[in-house]
């Protein structure tokens, strides 16, 4: 294996979605490494195919389904061996997954520079495993690709050298725009799921804070079921297992449960819904591109930009959620207001900016690349 390539460490669906454009721009210089953190084919394999990505050059075994500690430990050991035996010019990790944390630590151990895409997000909530992962990666990264000025400001306050921080925007913008189905395909989606444009709610729930607590999950399902509009709910494997484990099958049955969707199908349904309800980080970004309102069902968020811009509202199950659902469903001005609101996550050029920086620092400059955006130091 030539050293003049860059390893992109994938392990989950969001990483595939958000790094696919970077991989395509790097072309033959991209070495895709698959950890298998998400082992369900419905959540992974179809995404590689959808984005036209080649098969991974290196695949880890025995990671999916393990506890967090064992998962990270196995990934670090296997990735360290791989990067030591076949060192790339740099290792790219994305976001705040166990895969990202393990990839960064393994690269650091092997003496390989780390590029962190979507760097600088902070919830300041230590109960979130993702917050620990983000804070673990920060001191290990050689290049921090921050999606927003707020994220960059977090890194600077933590003592990260400004020379290593670039505001690139978020690759979710171009990924969303590229994956949106056509009008014909969207109409077929709505017909298939027996819903009418603007007259249904699309909900996704999968985070442990919502699925591991039976009382909280029951309350959340009850509040979704109380909505007068149809509620489509693609069931994540973790949520499906929690529903069974907590004896909530009857509560979940009041919603329109559907199988997990590929990215294009989810975006097609999200684009035409009345309201999104989710605990997903990616949906908090995608809603700003789709111009749809979102209720974020979580205790905290590392993406306050979507809230500040008026796209999202943070609410816990209970009175907060009931109030948020009632007010956002009754807001007749939301559609007109949001369609004219710019996404805080950029204009769709993040992938190009990230690849330009990678080529310049680790593979040699690309004279055709666009200039990098200047660093802003204020939130």
UniProtKB/TrEMBL annotation:
Organism name: Kitasatospora cheerisanensis KCTC 2395
Annotated keywords: Isomerase
Name of the featured protein: UDP-N-acetylglucosamine 2-epimerase domain-containing protein
Coiled-coil zones: none
Domain (UDP-N-acetylglucosamine 2-epimerase): residue spans on this chain: 30-358
Keyword rRNA processing annotated: no
Key word Isomerase present: yes
Highest taxon listed in the record's lineage: Bacteria
MF terms (GO), sorted A to Z: isomerase activity
């Amino acid at each position: 294996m030539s050293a003049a390539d860059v390893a992109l460490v994938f392990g989950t669906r969001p990483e595939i979605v958000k790094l696919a454009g970077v991989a395509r721009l790097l072309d033959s210089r991209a070495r895709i490494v698959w950890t298998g953190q998400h082992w369900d084919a419905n959540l992974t394999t179809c995404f590689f195919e959808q984005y036209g990505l080649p098969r991974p050059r290196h695949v880890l075994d025995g990671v999916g389904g393990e506890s967090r500690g064992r998962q990270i430990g196995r990934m670090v050991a296997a990735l360290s061996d791989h990067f030591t035996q076949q060192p790339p010019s740099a290792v790219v990790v994305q976001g705040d997954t166990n895969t990202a944390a393990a990839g960064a630590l393994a690269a650091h151990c092997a003496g390989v520079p780390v590029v962190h895409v979507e760097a600088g997000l902070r919830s300041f909530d230590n109960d979130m495993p993702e917050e620990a992962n983000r804070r673990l990666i920060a001191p290990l990264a050689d290049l921090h690709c921050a999606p927003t000025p707020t994220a960059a400001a977090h890194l600077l306050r933590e003592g990260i050298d400004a020379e290593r921080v670039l505001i690139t925007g978020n690759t979710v913008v171009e990924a969303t725009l590229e994956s949106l189905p056509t009008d014909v395909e969207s109409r077929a989606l709505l017909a298939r799921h027996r819903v009418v444009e603007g007259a249904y709610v699309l909900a996704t729930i999968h985070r442990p804070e919502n699925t591991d607590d039976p009382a909280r999950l029951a309350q959340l399902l009850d509040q979704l079921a109380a909505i007068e509009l149809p509620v489509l709910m693609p069931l994540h494997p973790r949520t499906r297992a929690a529903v069974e484990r907590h004896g909530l099958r009857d509560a979940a049955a009041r919603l329109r449960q559907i199988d997990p969707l590929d990215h294009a199908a989810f975006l097609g349904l999200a684009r035409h819904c009345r309201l999104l309800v989710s605990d997903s980080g990616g949906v908090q970004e995608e809603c700003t591109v789709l111009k749809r309102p979102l209720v974020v069902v979580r205790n905290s968020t590392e993406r306050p930009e979507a809230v500040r811009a008026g796209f999202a509202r943070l609410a816990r199950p209970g009175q907060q959620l009931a109030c948020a659902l009632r007010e956002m469903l009754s807001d007749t001005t939301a559609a007109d207001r949001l369609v004219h609101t710019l996404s805080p996550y950029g204009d769709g050029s993040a992938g190009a900016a990230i690849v330009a920086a990678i080529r310049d620092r680790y593979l040699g400059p690309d004279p055709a690349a666009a200039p990098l955006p200047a660093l802003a130091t204020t939130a």
